[in-house]
Amino acid sequence: MNSRPLKSSRPHIGIFGRRNVGKSSLINALADQDVAIVSSEAGTTTDPVFKMMEIHGFGPVVLIDTAGIDDTGDLGALRTDRTRRVIDQIDVAMLVIAENTFGEMERQLLQQLAGSGIPSLVVHNKSDIACIAAPLRGSLVNEFGVGVIDYNTVDRLNTEAIIDGLRKITPQSLFKNPTIVGDLVSYGDIVLLVTPIDLEAPEGRLILPQIQTIRDCLDNDCIAIILKERELDAYRKVIGAEPRLVVTDSQVFLKVASSIPPHIPLTSFSILFAHLKGAFEEYLQGTPRIQSLRDDDRVLIMESCSHHVASDDIGRVKIPRWLTHLTGSNLTFDFVAGLDSPPMPIDGYSLVIQCGGCMVTRRQIMQRLRPAINAGIPVTNYGMAIAFCLGIYERAIAPFVRRRFDATDFI
């Protein structure tokens, strides 16, 4: 199983508890199959492991199996630190306890979850050995306001109660699939998707934002037409029908903008995802601050996935080049991939640029951006930053803020 965050916007559920309380066994029970390694030896799970699965009666989820919060030694301290960092990545938590053992480490964990706004459920496992004591149940309910379920993974008789408990505490918004283009188009509209094939495109397939946008077009009963930027003129000659919306890879913004009449809405895949799951209002405020960058300012560029860095990588090569050219300043760039922490305190940066985030959840993106936003540091997004550098920012964001700009501004 992959221990890295998976490509999913489905609910992320973190499983926490001491070593050998049955966290992995609980995951197997919820999945109704053996997806996690189970052993009587404490400490079998050493790092957070992300498992994408379907829970019958609940739906598709990502369950995160974590190391024991009571791990010991220098290595154990690193493991427990990684376990607690999972809190920034989840939507819902389950704390697994056993044999009525609830101490300071469980208390601190529940307090941290509550402080992060994460709804929690307590599962008292191994009830075949000892049922949960009434005083402990009452204390958990009264002090932390959590649901408590007695359970054992041997007979799994109470699995439905756990699923029902999860369903009750999971925010309803997580069960809805937000639309990517649905609020921009109508039934039968043509959506033109410009997808260049370059060194960064995975061989034999499209990148995830393109795939997800195609599916969303189909879900919204649109006609999705996919082509490369070199075929735009051929499209106009052969088909000729005017698209309701044009979405392009940010790297060919200028080429596409010159080929598409100004009255046709134009944006990029990255901006679509910024609107879908990013801090869009903060991006709108932060993007124009690019022009205020000066010599020796530091810019943090945050990718949300780990990928092979090509010679002309969009985040590590092209965006720094465009920013430097626009500002004429000697800027310093730091890069962080996945959900790792920045290499220095956030207040040392003058600008933060977040990728579209197709592989992570909105909560994960917001958790990454919140320190910068709270510190008053401008934030923006790959596509919005590129559009600004190329001089077509207002046209690129107009489909989402159409009331702020008149279409004649682009003619």
Describe the SSE topology.
Blueprint: E1 12-17, H1 23-31, E2 49-55, E3 59-65, H2 73-85, E4 92-98, H3 104-115, E5 120-125, H4 134-144, E6 147-150, H5 159-169, E7 190-194, H6 208-219, E8 223-227, H7 232-238, E9 245-248, H8 253-259, E10 266-268, H9 269-277, H10 280-286, E11 298-302, H11 314-327, E12 332-336, E13 351-354, H12 362-374, E14 379-381, H13 382-390, H14 393-397
Parallel strand pairs: 1-3, 1-4, 4-5, 5-6, 7-8, 7-9, 9-10, 11-12, 11-13, 13-14
Antiparallel strand pairs: 2-3
Helix pairs in contact: 11-13
Structure description:
- It is a single chain.
- Among the domains are: 12-175, P-loop containing nucleotide triphosphate hydrolases (Rossmann fold), CATH 3.40.50.300; 280-390, Rossmann fold (3-Layer(aba) Sandwich).
- The chain contains 14 helices and 14 strands.
- The strands form 3 sheets. Strands 2-3-1-4-5-6 form a 6-stranded mixed beta sheet, sandwiched between helices.
- Helices cover 34% and strands 17% of the residues.
- α11 packs parallel to α13 (382-390).
- Residues 1-7 and 403-411 have low confidence and may be disordered.
- It has 411 residues and is α/β, with parallel strands linked by helices.
